[in-house]
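Case study.
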Amino acid sequence: MTLFSPRLAARLDALVEKYPLRRSALVPMLLYAQDEIGYISDAVVAEVAQRIGITELDVRNVATYYSMLRFKPAGKYNVQVCTNISCMLRGGYEIYERFKEELGIGHKGVTPDGLFSLEEVECIGVCCWAPAIQVNYDFHDELKPDLVPGIIDGYRGKAVAEAPHA
Amino acid sequence: MPRLVSHPDEVKIVTRRFGMGAADIERYIELGGYASAKRCLQQGADWIINEMKASNLRGRGGAGFPAGMKWSFVPKQSAKPKYVLVNGDESEPGTCKDHLIFLHDPHAVIEGTIIAGLAIGAKVGFIYLRGEYRYLLEIMEKAVADAYARGFLGKNIFGSDTEFQVITQTGAGAYEVGEESALMESLEGKRGVPRIKPPFPAVVGLYGGPTVINNAETIATVPHVIEMGAAAYAAVGSERNGGTRLFGISGHVERPGVYELPMGYNLKKMIYEVAGGIRGGRKLKAVVPGGSSTPVLLPEEIDIGMDFDQVGKAGSMLGSGGVVVIDDQTCIVEFALRTISFYQHESCGWCIPCREGTDWIKKSLTRFHAGFGEAKDIDNIQYLAENMMGRTFCPLGDAAAMPTLGFVKKFRKEFEDHLNGKPCPFAKHVDLAVV
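After joint prediction, the assembly is written out as follows.
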C-alpha cells in the first residue's frame, strides 16, 4: 500500500537506489511527496520512514529543518514573495503588500477556496531580475505591483482549465 | 525567464554559450563541448591539477580558495571512495549567477564535474541544486541523462576504461546547506548542520570519503580553462586572480544583470558604466560588493579592482560576486535589519553565538528602526556582532556579524538619527506589530 500515485511511487522506488546510501533519498523524497500530497502529513512521514528504513522521529527531525517542507496544507498555488535585499530595493515589500491586499491573507495564510496561499520568503536566486516571486516552482520576475492582479487571474484561469468538467 | 544582458567590456568565457541553446547536448558538442573532458582523460590527473593551479582559478563560492590547490589536497590512495560535489545551493542574497549557468549551460557543469573527478580519482560526482531551482534541476537531469546516453558518463566514459557517474540532488530550502560540510550532511539525508573541521572534506567528506567540493561556477569554468589553456585563462584576470567572474549587479542600478567581467575590473566602472549608473539619476549611498554577508563599502571606497585580494584590502570581500547597489533614498538601518533577519532565519541553531546573536541583533534593530531605540543599543549591536565573529563552527556567524559591523561603523550617524522616538527619515516598512 502506498499513499502516492503509481508514477510517484515508481519514482521513489528508483530514488532510493540512486545513491551510495539509501538515506540520501530522504530530503528529495519528502519534497516530491509534498509536491503530490500538498504537505508532509503524518501518513507521508510514516511511508517515507518505511521506504528509507529509518524511524518516523528521524524523518521528522530532518523534515523540520528545511523551510520548503510544510506540515499543513498550502493553497493549490503557493505564492512566495521574496523581500530580501535585492528585491526589497526594487519594491519587494510593495509586491508583498499588493498580494496581501488582493488575496486577503497574510504570511502563511490560505484563501478560503484553497486556491492560494502566501508566504514572505528569503532570497530565491533571482536578484538581478528583482523584484521576483515564485508560485509553486514557477518564477515571475521584474514585477510591479500593478502586475499582481494579472498574475492572480492567470492562476485562477489555470485552476478552472485544470478542473474536472462537471 | 531571467533576461540576459550584455556590455562591450565583458569577456565571455563561462557565458560564451549562454543564449545559444547549449542545454541541448548536440548543440553543446557543436560549440566545442566535451572536448576538454576528452583531453583531460588522455592527459591524466597530475596534468589537470597542474593546469588548474597555473590558471589561478579561485573558488567562486565566496572564500576564493585556489581550486587546483584544493584538488591537490585529496589523497591519491584512499580506502573509501572519493567524491566530487558541486555546490549549486546558491542562496546568498544578491547572487543568481549559477541560476544562469544551470539554465543555459548545464553540460559545462557536467563536463567540469567529470574533469574534477579525473583529477582526484573519483568515480562519482554529485550536483546539488537548491530546492527552489526545480526547473533548473529538470534541465540538469535531462542533460545528465543525455550525457549517459552518449556514453560521456557511465562505466566507460568516452569509450575508455574509466568510470564516472553523476547524481543530481535537490535541497529543500536552507541557506546553511551552502556551507560545504552542511551540504554533505544534507546529501546524507540529515539536518544541514555543519561539521567540525578538521578533518577537512578533502580527507573526510561525503560518506566519510575524500571529497572535493566546488561552487557550480567554479566547476562550469573548468572546461574553459582546459580549452583556453591555463596561462591564457590566468592572463585574463589580475594578479593571483585568474580569469573572469560572473558579477551579478542588483539593486538601484539602471541595468541590473549578470555580467562576465575580468577579475580585477573596477567596481566604480562596473556600477556606473556596465550597469548604467544609479537608477533615476539618484546618488549612490553604499555598495555591498559580494553578496549580503560582505561588509558594505561607501561611495568613496569603490574605486577598487574586483578581485579577492583588492576587495579584501578595502575591508570587505569579493564573496559570491553579487554586487548590491544602494541609492541615497534607502534607510541603512532597514537594510541592516533585512540583512540580519535573513541570517536569523537561516541560522541552523547549532552554535549559540550565531543562534542567539542573530536573534538579538534582529530584535534590537527592529525596535531601533521603529523609533524605540536607545543610544546604548548601537554599541550593544556592535558588541553582539563582535562576539559572534570567529566563534562558530561554520562561517554563517561571521556572515551575519560582518555586514552588521560594517553598517554600524560606517553609518553610525544614520543610526543616531533614528534615536529618541524619531521616525525613520525614509520611513517605509516600519512594522510596529513586531516590536
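Observations recorded in class. The beta strands of chain B are 83-88, 124-129, 165-170, 211-215, 244-251, 257-262, 265-266, 284-288, 305-306, 322-327. The first strand of chain B starts at residue 83 and ends at 88. We will return to this complex in the next lecture.
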